[in-house]
Design goal:
This protein has two domains: 140 residues, Rossmann fold (3-Layer(aba) Sandwich), CATH 3.40.50.1370; 135 residues, Rossmann fold (3-Layer(aba) Sandwich). It is built from twelve helices and nine strands. The strands form two sheets. The chain has a five-stranded parallel beta sheet with strand order 7-6-5-8-9. It has a four-stranded parallel beta sheet with strand order 2-1-3-4, sandwiched between helices. The chain is globular. 46% of the residues are buried. The protein binds phosphoric acid mono(formamide)ester and norvaline. Norvaline binds next to helix 6.
Length: 308
């Protein structure tokens, strides 16, 4: 059985818990080392990760390149627009061909169905590096960042503010897996995918929707937001106006628990979804969160290769 990682549920709770533990161990074991030095056990020596990007990336591309390098393997970056994929070669044929050259394929694209098709025709593991539907790799890093703070996942109170997007869908999926609660405050018309919410609620999480940002944040342990305009979306004036009451600013943060933490997957649009005072403030974990992309990707790759 090939281990694809298209959504968090492909791995499930036990495997994600193992990923988090492995990521913390590996992170601690190489503290202070040069970033390009290979981990002592080089568990993916000889393995190459092919990476197809149809959308921009800073963190996902560089953290996966460094992740496989630190595990002893190699990566290959492919801009979709420079591939025959960009001229109409089918996803299925691309999957069949790349499977003959590389040991795993990461793809960042728009339509989630493309990732599913790639996985259906690939004979090597496929990793979702973000689609319009979900961003599971980001959420493994977010869970790692939360667990590092000593906060247990079950029963955690998470508040999401702003747009109901791909990152939120994966937060909600994680809530269903680890039984934590998410209070979503989004404006009318910008709600997230109801299938993720229904599944999480059916699994014992409590996912609630409010139009009131303060209600979402009251008593929250973790406050999360993301850009109001995701890649591929139009920068509509009426959307920006609708989002403004959901900005994470100092006044809103003051209504959360005193030890509440702030997360943002980045890139941030300072002055829009978050103010400088919050993102640069003492409750923000964004740089640890960004670093943890690297440590999380390593454990995701190890799981895909059956080494976790
Ligand atoms: N958070 C995240 O996925 O960042 P990039 O778009 O830079 O990869
Ligand atoms: N929701 C954002 C996340 C970027 C990492 C987007 O899809 O553009």
């Amino acid at each position: 059985m090939i281990r694809h990682f298209l959504n968090l549920s492909d791995a499930g709770g036990d495997a994600i818990a193992a990923m988090l533990a492995n990521a913390m161990d590996r992170k601690a074991a190489r503290a202070g080392w040069p970033k390009g030095k290979v981990d002592a056990d080089a568990p993916l020596a000889g393995h190459t990760l092919g990476m197809i990007f149809e959308k921009n990336s800073t963190r996902t591309r560089t953290s996966f390149e460094m992740a496989i390098k630190q595990l002893g393997g190699d990566s290959m970056f492919m801009a979709a627009g420079q591939m025959q994929l960009g001229r109409g070669e089918s996803v299925a044929d691309t999957a069949r061909v790349l499977s003959r050259y590389v040991d795993a394929i990461l793809i960042r694209t728009d339509d989630h169905a493309k990732v599913e098709e790639l996985a259906a025709y690939a004979s090597v593991p496929v990793v979702n590096g973000l689609t319009d539907l979900s961003h599971p790799c980001q959420i493994v890093a977010d869970l790692l960042t939360i667990v590092e703070q000593g906060k247990p996942l079950p029963g955690l109170e998470v508040a999401w503010l702003g747009d109901g997007n791909n990152v939120l869908n994966s937060v909600v999926e994680a809530a269903g897996i680890f039984k934590f609660n998410v209070r979503i405050a989004v404006p009318h018309g910008y709600e997230s995918d109801s299938a993720f919410i229904d599944a999480a609620n059916a699994s014992g999480a409590q996912i609630t929707l409010t139009r009131d940002a303060s209600e979402a944040v009251a008593g929250a342990d973790i406050i999360v937001t993301d850009t109001w305009v995701s890649m591929g979306q139009e920068h509509a004036h009426n959307k920006m106006a609708a989002m403004m009451p959901y900005q994470v600013n100092e006044r809103l943060m003051a209504t959360a628990k005193p030890d509440a933490k702030f997360l943002h997957c980045l890139p941030a649009h300072r002055g829009e979804e978050v103010t400088d005072g919050v993102i640069d403030g003492p409750q923000s974990l964004i740089w640890d969160e960004a670093e943890n992309r690297l440590h999380a990707q390593k454990s995701i790759l190890l799981w895909c290769f059956g080494k976790l």
